[in-house]
Design goal:
Elements: H1 7-15, H2 22-30, H3 34-43, H4 46-61, H5 67-74, H6 79-86, H7 93-112, H8 120-125, H9 128-136, H10 146-150, H11 156-180, H12 193-210, H13 214-233, H14 246-265, H15 269-274
Helix pairs in contact: 1-3, 5-6, 7-11, 9-11, 9-12, 12-13, 12-14
């Protein structure tokens, strides 16, 4: 090989000061010339080289951020909080796909079965989705990132609320979009909202005592039992179930408020709950 990088250019290359197009030529030449690589090692600063390797190792070892995490950081969410939110199991495509499928089926049933005044199947299923989502987003038995959450520098109750708000935002948003697909029912199609908040708040309030699996399971079972009882006692197929009447909506709002108050009173118990395997 008749051409080699000059000593002056090698020193500039080592300092990071060599400009294009000489930089491109030097890069290409150094990959195939052992003599110039040896000369570069002699003129380079070992401290600078070590620092460069450390930066490279740190970059390679750094966890790769996903689209959701980058968006959260861009809008001002702290990095560790964005990582915990992005790792929430129910924000993954498999869960979101399942929720969308359930909503599509229930909305489709509401359009096909036009015998009653209310889309009963949709109103019955919609409140269960936020409850299930919150249950799957917290606790050692269900959350694959639970160990990371335990060592996160934040109060257990704050972590729960962060993930709950994220899950509720997604679940209620999808439910809201599904509601728009039922324009013929007007505001009656929103009768799922207060029951959804009541079920979710009650499930969270019972979690420190019963755990993240049993508490939402009992609450969901109680909701199904209530609907079956209401269906058994109603006087006609065109009569809405009791939970979706004005009185039932008032009861749901009261339950949601009481459960939220109880949840606030029990907030310190989530630190104890967070440290044990349930």
């Amino acid at each position: 090989m008749s051409w080699h990088v000059s000593d002056e250019d090698l020193r500039a290359y080592a300092r990071g000061e060599l400009a294009a197009p000489l930089l491109w030529s030097a890069d290409t030449h150094l990959t195939s010339c052992a003599r110039c690589r040896a000369a570069l090692a002699e003129v380079g600063d070992p401290a600078v080289l070590d620092a460069g390797w450390e930066r490279l190792d740190a970059e390679l070892d750094a966890p790769r951020t996903g689209l959701l995490e980058r968006l959260l950081v861009r809008i001002g969410v702290a990095g560790h909080t964005a990582r915990l939110l992005a790792a929430t199991p129910v924000l993954r495509r498999s869960w979101l796909g399942a929720v969308v499928a359930v909503l599509l089926l229930s909305v489709g049933a509401a359009h096909v079965v036009r015998g009653g005044e209310f889309p009963t199947l949709f109103l019955a299923l919609a409140p269960l989705l936020p409850l299930a989502g919150v249950a799957l987003s917290y606790g050692p038995a269900l959350d694959p990132t639970y160990e990371m959450a335990v060592v996160a520098p934040m109060h257990g109750f704050r972590l729960l609320m962060i993930r709950t708000v994220a899950v509720l935002g997604v679940a209620l948003g999808l439910n809201g979009l599904a509601t728009l697909a039922l324009p013929a029912y007007g505001l009656r199609a929103l009768a799922w909202l207060l029951p959804a908040l009541a079920l979710t708040a009650t499930g969270l309030a019972l979690t420190p005592r019963l755990g993240p699996v049993l508490a939402p399971s009992l609450v969901g079972g109680a909701w199904v039992g209530l609907l079956l009882t209401a269906d058994a006692v109603r006087t006609g197929a065109d009569v809405p179930l009791a939970p979706f009447t004005p009185a039932g909506q008032g009861v749901a709002a009261l339950v949601a408020a009481l459960a939220a108050g109880l949840l606030f009173l029990l907030r310190d118990r989530f630190d104890l709950f967070q440290g044990r395997a349930v």
